[in-house]
Amino acid sequence: MASSSPKLLLLLATSLLACVGLPVLVAANYAPMTLTVVNNCPFPVWPGIQANSGHDILEGGGFFLPSLSHKSFPAPTHPWSGRIWARTGCTPGSGAQLHCATGDCGGRLQCGGLGGAAPATLAQVNLHHNSDDQASYGVSVVDGFNVGLSVTPHEGRGNCPVLACRKDLTQTCPGELQVRSPAGGGAVVACKSGCEAFRTDELCCRNMYNSPRTCRASKYSEFFKRECPQAFTYAHDSPSLTHQCAAPRELKVIFCH
Length: 257
Hints:
Elements: H1 6-19, E1 34-39, E2 46-51, E3 69-74, E4 80-92, E5 98-102, E6 122-129, E7 134-140, E8 149-154, E9 157-159, E10 163-165, E11 178-180, E12 188-191, H2 194-198, H3 201-204, H4 219-227, E13 244-246, E14 250-255
Parallel strand pairs: 1-14
Antiparallel strand pairs: 1-3, 2-4, 4-5, 4-6, 6-7, 7-13, 8-10, 8-14, 9-13, 11-12
Signal peptide: 1-21
Pfam family, one: Thaumatin
Protein name: Osmotin-like protein
């Protein structure tokens, strides 16, 4: 026997609940919202998008974005969370392969659910939560830095600031955190976090250091915090600027901004 479609099964279950007088719970759909990714860098980037577990993969998880261009697409109308980052120094391979100097996701053009390799600056996004349709967003350099970025909401209600790490930290990061390109004369293309550079439990906030009480700022996270006070800089960090932004019509992630 052919299996029933999910829609048919949902219809049958809903009808049965209604017949026996039980309440029917329907997932809420929120107002339409646009996600826009902007490349203000003087070079092309390949944005990557990784949804958190159980959430939709958007735009295949990655695409090409030329310098001084943008791409807009509909956000889910149900709760969604994930991260967006820039892949840089990419070289296309055969088929759907793409190998990037920073932010690489398994050598693929469309990340398809995979995360990016550290170091990479992250925009973290959590859409449609709480009863008033809150959008939470932030910038993280916990996994290191490759390009500056900002997250900009438009037409939201409440406190909706722009959050950013705009400086090019590749010009100033400590030598032991620098990632240099084998091509292009060994230019610095990214900055590792202290965790990525040294892999210690203390710097990575692992094991006995995995709590707000024991996970503390280091000289490396303090470098990032001085340069980008609005960003998360280590696992239990708190950003300097908070927000309560409800129902923005658009959320922009802007690279090199």
